[in-house]
Automatic annotation (TrEMBL):
Lineage: superkingdom: Eukaryota
Stretches forming TPR repeats: 32-65
Lineage of source species: Eukaryota, Sar, Stramenopiles, Ochrophyta, Raphidophyceae
Keyword check for Lyase: no
Record domain Methyltransferase type: where: 138-242
Protein name as catalogued: Methyltransferase type 12 domain-containing protein
Protein source organism: Heterosigma akashiwo (Chromophytic alga)
InterPro entries for the chain: Methyltransf_12 (IPR013217), SAM-dependent_MTases_sf (IPR029063), TPR-like_helical_dom_sf (IPR011990), TPR_2 (IPR013105), TPR_rpt (IPR019734)
Keyword Lipid biosynthesis included in the entry's annotation: no
Keywords: Repeat, TPR repeat
Length: 325
């Protein structure tokens, strides 16, 4: 049944695929994965109510099924919205997408976020008189390296992190990163934070001093996969505080700069929304609040069209922040 359903789905015959999986579920009603797959096909067919019913049945049979919880959350309503996308969803999506990623993103979706946000950073640094050409940069969710190419003018060194092995392999080919790591963005930041808390090398006076790690954090088209930004922002802030010596009063240079993009929340009064695209949108007020709570100054926030979706513009926020220790 599943093999036939996959064939029918590839042929865009979602109704026939759903009919087959409905029969399969009737024969094996306690199979959580069958309920999940049936729900996904129903979702593609446009039958959200019935899809939600089978996502819930999947979760009833297997409460830790993160993908069922995630896709159920895209329907809104009273169902709980997960705080971020499941790692296995992102890995599968981008491992199968890496070879054609750049052509599709730039040509078809007209994605220009790294270039535009780099121009905003340049504008901020010129206005404030900052030196922004000698940074140790961390490119979070680096993908194939599009953001690395845009921001390399600001970096003396650059580390790239991405959850997809295939995307990292494409990034390696550009030869712009000193290091690349296959890792979850938040997990990588947590690991660096733990290292910073456990390792303080002695200074010239024999006392421990922080070890400097990163002073430019880049997250282009990454926070669309994280709804609750509190932990990632807090971890970046703590990492900078743990690894940077206090700034002298005679310097205007920030301890670190953080640049990122989000998609704009178009309605509702919640901090973030999980849309049926499988991407999160954030409100402007939430972005301002989460930065303020973590001692990040929002130097510039601009609303822009960040890409196209089915020929329509997708609005987002481009943000440049700084932190001083």
């Amino acid at each position: 049944y599943e093999a036939c359903a996959r064939f029918l789905k590839a042929s865009k015959d979602f109704k026939a695929a759903c009919d087959l999986l409905e029969i399969a579920v009737s024969f094996d009603p306690t199979n959580s994965e069958l309920h999940y797959k049936y729900a996904k096909y129903l979702r593609n067919k446009g039958d959200k109510d019935k899809a939600a019913e089978h996502f819930r049945k999947c979760l009833e049979l297997q409460p830790d099924h993160s993908l069922a919880e995630f896709w159920l959350g895209t329907f809104g309503g009273s169902d709980a919205v997960p705080s971020k996308c499941p790692e296995n969803y992102i890995k599968k999506l981008y491992n199968g997408y890496a070879s054609k990623f750049e052509e599709h993103l730039v040509k078809d979706l007209r994605y220009q976020t790294p270039t535009v946000i780099n121009a905003l950073l340049q504008q901020v640094t010129e206005e404030r008189g900052w030196n922004s050409t000698n940074n140790a940069a961390l490119d979070l969710g680096c993908g194939t390296g599009l953001s690395g190419l845009a921001f390399k003018v600001h970096a003396r060194s650059m580390v790239g992190v991405d959850l997809s092995e295939a995307m990292i392999e494409e990034a390696r080919k550009k030869d712009i990163y000193n290091e690349v790591h296959v890792a979850d963005v938040l997990g990588f930041l947590r690991e660096k934070l733990i290292q910073s808390e456990n390792y303080n090398p002695p200074g010239e006076d024999g006392h421990s001093q922080p070890i400097h790690q990163f002073d430019l954090f880049i997250a282009c088209d990454v926070f669309v996969y994280i709804g609750d930004l509190s932990e990632v922002m807090q971890t970046i802030s703590l990492l900078v505080k743990n690894t940077t010596l206090p700034r002298g009063d005679d310097s205007d240079q920030p301890s670190a700069i953080i640049v990122f993009s989000t998609e704009k929340q178009l309605s509702g009064d919640t901090p973030f929304t999980l849309n049926d695209t499988g991407r999160y949108t954030h409100s402007k007020q939430y972005i301002l609040d989460i930065c303020r709570q973590n001692d990040l100054e929002v130097c510039k926030i601009e609303e822009r069209t960040i890409r196209q979706n089915k020929g329509l513009p997708v609005l987002g926020f481009l943000v440049v922040c700084s932190i001083v220790v």
